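User: I'm curious whether this sequence folds into something compact or stays loose and floppy. Could you predict its structure so I can see for myself?
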Amino acid sequence: CVLCFLWEGRPRRELLLVLDGLLRGEGAAPTGGVRIWAKTIWCASMTVTAAVDKVENLKISIVTVCYNSAATIRDTIESVLAQTYPDIEYIVVDGASRDATMAIVNEYKGRIAKVISEPDKGIYDAMNKGVQAATGDVIGILNSDDFYETEQVIADVAGCFQQHPDSELVF
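Assistant: Here's the prediction. I'll summarize afterward.
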């Protein structure tokens, strides 16, 4: 499931990528939308409180939060780095893991825009740190045990905004 929304008062679109159930084939899907990896992205038009100036060239920030995720973080990172969309800012926020998570993250450090590794107050605090560090027009959160099924997922999300520039919600 892909959910995109605008935070009131912020001059950019905010994107939350919720992939848990979909990657496992759970949940019912409404009809219509843009087809991706046997699932669908749907756009819904809402009142705009703050708009992106240009939808053609959206910068998309992807935030991955992790803690002791050595078993899964590599697949997550590689799925983001494999995306075909040209303007992605990738941010990893680690809650001071005690396993090999940061050693794996550091293998990709040259391709990750920002890495934050420090204690946090839980997953939502870590997500907020990532959102605060992000500079994109669209912000996506991909958890450290999830991955993008194809290299086109972010391009499809951007395409949905380009086809429906008044959309403020994609799910």
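Summary: Residues 123-133 form the longest helix (11 residues). The helical segments are 20-23, 73-81, 101-107, 123-133, 153-163.
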